[in-house]
Amino acid sequence: MRGSTTKNLLFSVLTVAFLLGCLEGGARFFGAGRETSVYEEHQRIIDVLGLRDLNETMTFDRHLFWRLKPHLKDRRVHGAVRGELIDFRVSTNDFGLRDAEIGPKRGLRILALGNSCTFGVGVEGEDSFPEQLENLIGQSVPEGIEVLNAGTPGYTAFQGRRFLERIGDDLDPDIVIVSFGFNDSDVWSSRTDRETAAVFEPQGWRKWARRSAFYRLLAAALPRKGADTGAGGAAAGGHGESGVGQIPRLMPEEFYEEMTAIAAWANDRGRNALFLVWPYRKQVTENRPEPIIYQPLILKVAADTRSPAINLIDAMIAAGEQMESAEALFVDHIHGSPAGCRVVATAVADLLARARTR
To answer: What does residue 281 show for φ and ψ, rounded to 5 degrees?
Structure first.
């Protein structure tokens, strides 16, 4: 009797082990639960937008999800965003920034931290707002000035904060210009960036379980707190597609916390953070200055951390009124044209000039 029980138990264990092995093998065969999944999702979104060449400028990074490849030289990005033609070139330095090589610090150093609007999708490097800002105020700063372009397509404030914590001290900026919000309110795969990071960098027993493709698949499929709330208006105007049961890459409270953490990073080092409220094109062309989606949260972060902020909606509307068409300030639904980036650079330069004369 005892021998029969032992055999049955052994058979059950072997059966369960076989089934788990089949599930694990199937998950690995179909590539389910890959750690690169969020990076690949970003690539798919870029493909859908119509700018596939942009994928070739980036590479997977477990901590940041993706980053710009270093040492790019005039890599052409040609395509369209929502049917609007885009054609520009990308060069990067040792740090993977869309900038010249960084030498010893000279004078005032500004770090422009942000998403594809800061990066300058659709414009050449010299037409991006960080480069135009450097040229605008370079002559008025006797000790010299550098404006480093740390914008990365697709980044949220979560990735921006992690980027700052990784190499911010190496770059040693005096001022950090912060511009996020579009990707943060975007909906991708019913998982926030924080949850994605927890999958990539789990603690305790999950650190070992993460090696299993089946576990990663199961973790991604299980219901999660807040998944049935929907994104509401959060994703409107973003890059992805909203849907029932999906959530933005950063929930509103998470976006506020990440932006506040960026300000704290600067303040802890005796530096200053400057927040930008970047407009949607329709806000400018339809003269709708009221902040929407995550824009009010940016202004709240600035007020709560006693940091300066520039509402670029007003600046763009004012500039558009002086032009034949405000459409010329944008290359697509959000990204600034050379003229639009000039408006941003001028607004920042004016604020810095006022601060220096106080």
So the answer is: -60, -40
**47 occurs within a structural domain:** no
The set of residues, in sequence order, having a beta carbon less than 8 Å from that of 177 and lying 6+ positions away, is 110, 111, 112, 113, 114, 118, 130, 273, 274, 276, 348
pTM for the predicted model, two decimal places: 0.82
- pLDDT for residue 132: 97
Name the phi and psi angles at 90, rounded to 5: -125, 130
User: In degrees rounded to 5, what are phi and psi of residue 243?
Assistant: -165, 160
Residue of 244, 154, 227, 235 whose CA lies nearest to 191: 227
β-sheet bridge partners, residue 67: 59
* pLDDT of residue 288 exceeding 70: yes
* Residue 236 within a domain: no
| Cβ-contact 277, 310 below 8 angstroms | yes
Residue 65 lies in a domain: no
How many Cα atoms sit within 13 Å of 212 on the Cβ side?
Answer: 16
The domain that holds 324 is classified in CATH as 3.40.50.1110
Q: Is residue 226 part of a domain?
A: no
Which pair of tokens denotes residue 109?
A: 């150093």
Question: By residue range, what is the domain housing residue 295?
Answer: 72-188+246-356
Query: Can you give the pLDDT at residue 188?
Result: 77
Give the count of domains, the chain.
1
pLDDT: which is higher, 299 or 225: 299
